[in-house]
Design goal:
two-stranded antiparallel ribbon; about 45% helix; alpha/beta; about 10% strand; Rossmann fold; 11 strands; about 400 residues
Length: about 400
């Protein structure tokens, strides 16, 4: 089964169309395309980015904003406590003690809906007690784990909902997001971040801090030599460089590189053409990404056990992946689902929730998904999310919330 993530497929298509200069080292050419201009870094560090702000420990945190990215062309109000350092604004039952913290990505943050329309607020209104929302758009599972460690010291909760989105697995391995994804205007989500390095063959997992740990160090991303020296041996840099040159590789040298990398990550294969080259590279990337998430989950569980907490995992997906599942019955993360099952960890699979929900409809997949998605979940999608996990949230709470006593 081909388990490809649509985000990285788009990157592959873009990379394949970008040809390196004749006679120029491919790695150097790639590094030249990645570097920032000084004014880009100035804008980022001066707090002029609409969405996000620099964070040494996490890569970035969010800014308060009013952005026209909601349903029907509406503007969404995003409000975060403590100038973006805290959780998203709590509305329902905010005056009551909070015993549920939620962590994760933009599907946790609830991008593209206003403060009161998040799935956390839907659930808070229903169960009669508040939920903190520590989600940040573009974050990996590893970044969310690091924030969990910080927030559970500052504002601890007995229960945690940990949200994992499709691309979060790959994000674990990103040292600089721009290496893998097309840079958005303003650099939001494409800066350096804490990451992990894994080796499937040796079963190793190594945590790394943000490559640019101070505001001043971010200017290193404007220096081609620094970028090349810092990232030339980076796993994701090598992967994307391979894809860039796969279509035009005429010698065995590039194939030899992939074979070596395959062996390093515990995958032995014969690669004899460009298509097989890229396909096998994505398999290596996916397996490494899923392994990284599994290792992070192990650490979350260890932390929860040591601190007498309970965790519910929620798996989120974009409309493309859900539509692919509805049409073809295939998913890229079957191995991770198997891992959760084997470990006996409580989780809600929103892809499967949509599969079951779709059976109630007679329309096509696209028409069905338009009810819930505008990129991220719209308000109706957030209600779907909330109702899909409601029973599991209520079941894990002890004592039960006031509406279920």
């Amino acid at each position: 089964m081909k388990r490809f993530q649509p985000t990285v497929l788009v990157v592959l298509a873009l990379a394949a169309s970008s040809m390196v200069s004749l006679g120029e080292d491919p790695a150097t050419a790639f590094a030249k395309e990645l570097v920032y201009q000084k004014q880009d870094v100035d804008t980022w560090l001066n707090g002029k980015n609409r969405f996000a702000q620099y964070s040494s420990g996490f890569g970035w945190l969010l800014n308060n904003s009013l952005t026209k990215d909601g349903a029907d062309g509406s503007a969404c109000r995003y409000t975060y406590n403590d100038g973006g350092q805290g959780c998203r604004k709590m509305i329902n039952h905010a005056d009551k003690p909070c015993r549920i913290n939620t962590y994760g990505n933009s599907f946790t943050q609830c991008h593209q809906v206003s403060d009161g329309e998040t799935w956390q607020e839907v659930l808070a209104a229903h169960i009669g007690e508040p939920m903190r929302n520590f989600g940040v758009g573009g974050w990996s599972v590893y970044q969310a784990y690091l924030r969990m460690l910080r927030e559970e010291e500052k504002t601890p909760a007995d229960y945690m909902v940990f949200n994992i989105y499709s691309d979060d697995h790959y994000r674990n391995l990103d040292a600089w997001r721009s290496i893998r994804v097309t840079r958005m205007e303003g650099g939001f989500g494409e800066v350096t971040l804490p990451y992990v390095a894994v080796n499937l063959d040796k079963n190793t997992f190594i945590e790394h801090p943000n490559p640019c740990p101070t505001p001043e160090s971010v200017y290193n991303l404007c220096d081609v030599d620094w970028v090349l020296n810092r990232f030339k041996d980076d796993f994701v840099f090598k992967m994307m460089l391979m894809h860039r040159t796969a279509a035009t590789a005429k010698t065995d040298s590039r194939y030899d590189d992939l074979k070596k990398l395959s062996t390093t990550f515990g995958i032995n294969t014969r690669v004899d053409n460009a298509a097989a080259f890229s396909e096998q590279a994505w398999k290596i990337h996916l397996d490494a990404a899923l392994f990284a998430t599994e290792q992070i989950v192990e650490r979350i569980e260890k932390f929860a056990k040591e601190n007498n907490k309970r965790v519910l995992y929620v798996l989120s997906y974009n409309s493309y992946e859900i539509g692919r599942m509805l049409k073809e019955g295939e998913r890229f993360d079957a191995d991770f689902i198997q891992y959760l099952e084997e470990k006996g960890l409580p989780y809600v699979d929103l892809m499967q929730e949509h599969v079951e929900d779709y059976r109630k409809y007679s329309c096509g997949e696209e028409e069905y998904l338009e009810q819930y998605f505008i990129g991220h979940y719209n308000p109706r999608g957030n209600f779907f999310h909330a109702w899909s996990i409601k029973d599991e949230v209520v079941d894990m709470l002890d004592p039960k919330p006031e509406s279920y006593k």
